[in-house]
Amino acid sequence: MIWQLNIKKIVMLANLLEHGKPKVAKYWPDDTQAFGDIIVTKLSEHSMPEIQHVVRIFSLEKSGTVGFRIVRHFHFTGWPDLGVPSDRLSVLGLLQQVRKYLPDSTDPICIHCSAGVGRTGTIILMDSMIERAKEEGVVNFPERLDHMRVQRVDVVEKKEQYVFAHQGVNDLFQNSTETVEYLAKVDHLHKSLHNELYQKKFTPPLNMGEALQRIRWHSHRISAVLSAMDKGFPDGA
Which of 24, 127, 175, 232 has a Cα-to-Cα distance from 133 of 20 to 30 A? Predict the structure, then answer.
């Protein structure tokens, strides 16, 4: 699906283990792995526990095609199943960074939790209301939720999640000093990550086995990867 739909951004809202039980399968490799005719390589992983964000960067190559694609994986670790995060601003910060990366892209964004209903629906509701408010100056939560539920039954499972979406959008447009400062902090952390990636040389891990043999590590690969990543930050971040 990621390759077929040319998805460049993935937002993950669940954790691999929740309440001591497996919740989501780990669908990415620690280094390089073949999934059928798709080769996935994890280029980097950076954790920001103070804002509950983890950012991973992958390259994808498909057998029989030329070149590769970059996928950025935004993982929010602080959202409990059937509940809401303790901090709305951390979710707003996540949405801000997802939107800032490749802002002109019209390709779909993959958003998931475990069931694809509660957490996923809540963040989609928040994001769509923020974008509508920016474009039209109005929001209509009930209308939007009804429309979403035509496409996905029971999306936004709990009353608390619906209220959370309302309050989060309100926080953003109230533009309080706390909100402005927090979002600036998130921006700084993500920019620091981007700068760190430029200082790091991506080299293939050792002992990858058969999958590694299928990857064409051209001499221009590092600069090409960095150039592709940089397109997501037109402001020079």
Answer: 232
Contacts 24+ apart (CB under 8 A), 94-100: 94/11, 94/53, 94/123, 94/186, 95/123, 95/126, 95/127, 95/130, 96/183, 96/186, 96/187, 97/53, 97/186, 97/187, 97/190, 98/9, 98/11, 98/74, 99/127, 100/187, 100/190, 100/232, 100/233, 100/237
Helix (H, G, I), strand (E, B) or coil at 37: coil
Per-residue DSSP letters for 110-154? EEE-SSSSHHHHHHHHHHHHHHHHHHHS---HHHHHHHHHHHSTT
Residue with tokens 């909100």: 179
Question: Which has the closest alpha carbon to 84: 164, 157, 9, 4?
Answer: 164
Q: Which among 192, 211, 193, 176 is positioned nearest to 34, based on CA atoms?
A: 211
Per residue in 82-92, pLDDT (tens digit) is 899 999 999 99
Tokens representing 73?
């994986």
Note whether 120 and 12 are within 8 A (CB). Answer: no
CB atoms within 10 A of CB 175: 10
- The predicted-structure confidence for 90-113, as pLDDT tens digits, reads as follows 999 999 999 999 999 999 999 999
Whole-number CA gyration radius for the chain: 19
